[in-house]
Amino acid sequence: MQRVCFTLQVKRDRLAEYRDSHKAVWPEMLAALSRHGWTNYSIFLRDDGLLIGYLETPDFAKAIAGMQSEEVNARWQSAMVGYFETLPGARADTSIVPLAEVFHLA
After folding, report:
1. What long-range pairs does 101-106 form, CB within 8 A, spacing at least 24?
2. Domain containing 53 — which CATH number?
3. How many CB atoms lie within 10 A of CB 8?
4. 104 labelled catalytic
5. Domain hosting residue 68, numbered range
6. What is the pLDDT of residues 37-65, one digit of tens each?
7. In whole angstroms, how far apart are CA 36 and each of 14, 61, 100?
8. What pLDDT does residue 87 have?
9. Across-strand partners of 52?
10. How far apart (Å, rounded) are the C-alpha atoms in residues 48 and 61?
11. How confident is the prediction for the chain on average, in pLDDT?
């Protein structure tokens, strides 16, 4: 199982809206994430906009590719894009660069 951690930057003036948008993630989006191996997926958000995401998956490349094939993901990403500072991949899901794991207590 791969443990994946990543950061993104949410616009400070959109923090409350971003938090609210995740109170009721669409059921079809949750199903797609599960279907493509996103488990133990959590998002943490600091008051300065630093977002830290964490997930576990058997194969992160497959998990990303699987979501790319989902129409619901395209709709979700379109709804989310305005919350973020500059995204090098144009969308949050295509801008994820995993952090290197340097320690894990099993």
Report:
1. 101/3, 101/5, 104/3
2. 3.30.70.100
3. 21
4. no
5. 2-83
6. 999 999 999 999 999 999 999 999 999 99
7. 29, 10, 22
8. 87
9. 7, 44
10. 29
11. 96
